[in-house]
Amino acid sequence: MEQIHDSGKNCLSILSTKEYNELYSNSNSLNFEAGELIVKKGSPVNNIYFLKSGIVELSLDQAPKNQILSLLFNGEFIGINCVFSTAQYRFSARALTKCSIELLDKETFTKLLKENGAFSMAFIQYISWVNEGFLNWQMKLKEKNSAGALAFLICEFQKNFDSNSFEIPLTRQEIARIIGFSKESVLKNLADFRKEGLVDSNGKSITIIDASRLEEIAKYG
């Protein structure tokens, strides 16, 4: 079965050892604390940011309401859909948790795309997946009530951690801001999920008990 290149990490795995070393010989490692700005909207696209660990929030960063575009997890490129289409980033990227970033040289990356056809095809597939993810995130959250939006976010974390038990490294206020509802609605819906036997929670730790029902709320709520 053909591999689906649905992460930046999968794309990089296409490179030969020589190509991988060439790319990383021209890179720099950066660390960001939670809350730090990684990319500012309007800044020039000079490098390629690869998220090695942590969670990053992409937003339009405009008053009066900072619209969240998506969350990125480890193994993804940050703002990759701007790298070859515009001279400036069209959104901001901020670390939601402590993040480790590899700053890749754009010229070296472009050279490898030209020289390695399999890498180019994987990258095209990945860009398509990223763009579809943006649309899905926006459309799904806009259509949902508060319970559906919270269930959707919990399911997103479940998919990315590949486990029914995980820790959401966000405060209830941050969760509320991301899904576009009040902190009170997050607390109420989380209490309802516990009461209905959908999840168990203790602080930031979440265990999904009834995944099918939670996914149904995420889909139809």
TrEMBL record:
A Pfam family: HTH_Crp_2
SMART domains per UniProt: cNMP, HTH_CRP
Entry's Gene Ontology cellular component terms: cytosol
InterPro entries xrefs: cNMP-bd_dom, cNMP-bd_dom_sf, Env_Response_Regulators, HTH_CRP, RmlC-like_jellyroll, WH-like_DNA-bd_sf, WH_DNA-bd_sf
GO molecular function: DNA binding; DNA-binding transcription factor activity
Domain of life: Bacteria
Domain HTH crp-type positions: 144-212
Keyword tags: DNA-binding, Transcription, Transcription regulation
CDD domains given in the database record: CAP_ED (cd00038)
Domain Cyclic nucleotide-binding residue range list: 11-113
PROSITE patterns: CNMP_BINDING_3, HTH_CRP_2
Name listed for the protein in its UniProt record: CRP-like cAMP-binding protein
